[in-house]
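Friendly challenge for the regulars: who can give me the C-alpha cells for this chain first? No prize, just bragging rights.
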Amino acid sequence: MKTLSYLVLPIALLSVAALSTAQDEKQPTVEVSALKGSLHLLKGRGGNVVASVGTDGILMIDDDYTEYAQAHHEALRGLAGDASVPAFVVNTHWHFDHTGGNQYWGEQGSVIVAHSNVRERMSTRQEMKAFNRVIEPSPLAALPVVTYGDSLVLHMNGDDVEVQHFPTGHTDGDSVIFFVGENVVHMGDHYFKDRFPFVDLGSGGNVLGFTRNIASVLARVDDNTVIVPGHGDLANKADLQRYLTMLESTTEMVRSHLEKGMTPEQIAEQGLGEEWASWGSGFINEQAWISFIAGSL
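First reply, four minutes later:
Bragging rights claimed.
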C-alpha cells in the first residue's frame, strides 16, 4: 500500500524543487512578526521558527534550512542586539527543513535539544523513499546534545516551556512545544493548516497515531491559544478542531473503501469528496494523503 506514495510524491516535489531553486537565487531573508509577550515568529523558507527573546536569552524552536541560518541570525540581532545566539535550540523533529541550522548554531555555542529519536536519525543514514532521497549523517555539531524520552521543561524568559514528545505521528521523534504562560503552541509538522499533512511512514510516522496526537493537543488548548503550524499561517482551536475532523473523516472513508476491496489507486480515482477537495492544494495532494492512510492501516 505504500507504493502509491512513492509514485506520487516525486511528482509533487517537482513544483516544490522549482520554487526552491527560484528562491535560492535570491538572498535568503527572514520575516519577523510579534506573537505574544517575549515570543516572535520567524519565517524563512522552511518550517516556522518561534523565538523567545528576553532577559534569560533566546530560546529558538526549529531553525529552517541550512542556507537560512545567517538570515535568522540577522533577524535575532534585530531583536536582541549582540546577545543574538540562542541559549537553546529545540528541534520539533529531524527533517532538514527544521534542523538545517543546527550545525551553525551548534558551532556558535547553542545547546541543541530534541527527542532521542531525532539524534538517532540525524546521526545515521536515512532513506526517504517517499522522496527518493538519501540523507547522510549530520555533522557532530548539528546533533542534539540534550535528549529526552518523554518530555522536559525549560524555564525561560518568565515562562514554562513544556517540550512534549508525541510518538508515532509525523515521525517517531516529534515534539509539540507548549509556552504555558503565553498560551502559544508550536505544533511542528503535526499541523498543516487546512492542508493534508505529510506523514513520514519511513520515519515511524502513522496516520492513526498522528490523529491521536492531534486529539491530545486539542484537549490542552483553549479559544485564546495561538497555534503555530509547522508550515503556513497561525491558527486557533477552531482551526485545529477542523483539522482533527478531516483526519478522522478521511481515515474512516479510506478504511471503509479498503474493507470493500478497493485499492488505494481506486480510492484516489474516486476521491474524498468536495468537502476536502481544497485540502489537497498544498504540498501533499489527495492521492498522496490516501496513500498515507492506506499505508498506516
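The chain has nine helices and 14 strands. The chain has one domain: 3-242. Your move, everyone else.
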